[in-house]
Amino acid sequence: MSVESVAGPALEDRRARAAVAALFFTNGALFANLIPRYPQIKDDLGLSNAVYGLSVAAFPTGAILAGAAAGVLVRRFGSARAATAGTVLTGAGALVAGVSPSVWAFAAALFLAGAMDAITDVAQNAHGLRVQRRYGRSIINSFHAVWSIGAVTGGAMAAGAIAAGLPRGIHLAVSAGLFAVVALVALRFCLPGPETEPADEATAAGRNASGGSRGIGSRTALVVAALVLIAMAATVVEDAGNSWAAIYLSGPLAAPVAVAAWGYIALVGAQFVGRLCGDRLVDRFGQRTVAIAGGLVAAGGMGLALAFPTVPGTILGFAAAGLGVATLVPAAMHEADELPGLKAGTGLTVVSWLMRLGFLLSPPVVGAVADASSLRLGLVVVPAAGLLVVVLAGVLSQRPRRS
Fold first, then answer.
1. What is the residue-averaged pLDDT of the chain?
2. What is the pLDDT of residue 337?
3. Distance, CA of 147 to CA of 165 (rounded, Å)
4. Burial code of 91-105, b = ≥16 C-beta within 10 A, e = fewer?
5. Gap between the Cα atoms of 337 and 326, Å rounded
6. 154-178, pLDDT tens digit by residue?
7. Cβ distance 22 to 142 under 8 Å?
8. Are the CB atoms for 368 and 228 separated by under 8 Å?
């Protein structure tokens, strides 16, 4: 047992935890300032639903391509510096996207923002895990909850800026500058030294030696594929809030733009609540039961909202969707990381990498359906994703985890 586990974390570790929380907060808030501006950008650039869907898919495209470089940058420059630089450049990309004069500039800026966001995501999680090892207990979920707080804060900032009639350029410049300062201050309190300590390297080597010699069976491959689909289902639901909530509310449902921003805010706000309660629910009922319940909540809530379209009902539908998928990505990652027959970290890496395909494929598919029929029909992907989780949840652990 470490000294920290008996006497509590050292001051340096507590400061590092606050610094990582600040990085997660800024990561959630930065892009959330841009998302409620999407309807205005779509109208100003005269984009069809299909072209808009392809344009916003540039963000996950950049994230997927940059994901391969994130680990190299973390090892080369350190997780704290990589996360901070990624935060500053993500803000710059969001600013340029908000004031872009053409669809090509808009897509290029989103590509940059997505690439930098992916690097930030990997780096801040890597540094959060360093801090967690110092604490000797799980604290990583608290960082993701803070991310949700940041997303709600950013969405509320955008809604306020829209209601006040603040130009997009000024609003997004203030957002980018403010959170760049927060990230740079946080960098001063992050942990110094190498990313991996000798004890951690020895543990990882032991795990690789014990698990790496076994082959990957067909059952393991099928389980990994199912876990990827569960995580992708969660990203499809999240993307519906990111890319389409404000468009649907302000377009077909004729809500004011400032009110339309609350579709996204409701989704990420409910997701935050789900993440706060998720660990206790999983410990009590098991991951499989929680996932099935979440899939039913997402499918039922958004299904009812689409069947009986109203502005308040749709906002509540997006909230139900966010609550339903709150624990799915952590569940899929945890399950993949403990699969037998895989080297340490292999399952987690595969799920983390491939789940971004949900963000990539969802916008153009929904946009194409919206142009061919209606956006209301395109958003049926949300209840469909919830039902997919119910079908595949059998690969998750039923027995509640015990500490």
1. 85
2. 67
3. 27
4. bbbbbbbbbbeebee
5. 19
6. 989 998 999 899 999 999 999 999 9
7. no
8. no
Q: What angle do CA 66, 69, 73 make, to 5 degrees?
A: 125
Distance of alpha carbon 120 from alpha carbon 141, whole angstroms? 17
Determine the distance from the C-alpha atom of residue 207 to the mean position of all C-alpha atoms in its chain, rounded to a whole number: 29
DSSP state letters, 134-152: HHTS--HHHHHHHHHHHHH
On whether the CB atoms of residues 295 and 389 are closer than 8 A, the answer is yes
Query: What are the tokens at 361?
Result: 């494929």
Please choose, from the candidates 391, 272, 390, 393, the residue with its C-alpha nearest in 3D space to the C-alpha of residue 322: 272
Q: By the 8 A CB rule, do 141 and 279 touch?
A: yes
Tens-digit pLDDT profile for residues 279-308:
778 878 888 999 999 999 999 999 999 999
> d(Cα 4, Cα 124) in Å, to the nearest integer?
22
Q: Looking at residue 327, what is its pLDDT?
A: 86
Distance CA 125, CA 133 (A): 12
Distance, in Å, from the CA atom of 349 to the CA atom of 344, rounded to the nearest integer, reads 10
User: By the 8 A CB rule, do 158 and 36 touch?
Assistant: yes
Q: Which residues contact 90 (CB under 8 A, 6 or more apart)?
A: 27, 30, 31, 113, 116, 117, 120
- For residue 196, the SS3 value is coil
Instruction: For residue 253, report the phi and psi dihedrals to the nearest 5 degrees.
Output: -95, -5
Residue 10 main-chain phi, psi, to 5 deg: -70, 165
pTM: 0.74
Phi, psi of 400 (to 5 degrees): -55, 140
Q: Distance between CA atoms of 293 and 47, rounded to whole angstroms?
A: 38
What's 396's DSSP letter? S
Residue 283 has phi, psi (to 5 degrees) of -60, -30
Closest CA to 297 of 277, 311, 310: 277
For the cut 50, the answer to whether the pLDDT of residue 199 exceeds it is no
Query: Measured between alpha carbons, how far is 161 from 170 in angstroms, rounded to an integer?
Result: 9
Q: Which residues contact 293 (CB under 8 A, 6 or more apart)?
A: 324
Q: Going by C-beta distance under 8 Å and a sequence separation of 6 or more, which residues neighbour residue 93?
A: 109, 110, 112, 113, 114, 116
Which band of pLDDT confidence, cut at 50, 70 and 90, is reported for residue 138? low
Which stretch, 93-107, 253-267, 335-349, has highest mean pLDDT? 93-107
Q: Name residues whose C-beta falls within 8 Å of residue 229's C-beta, 6 or more positions apart in sequence.
A: 388, 392
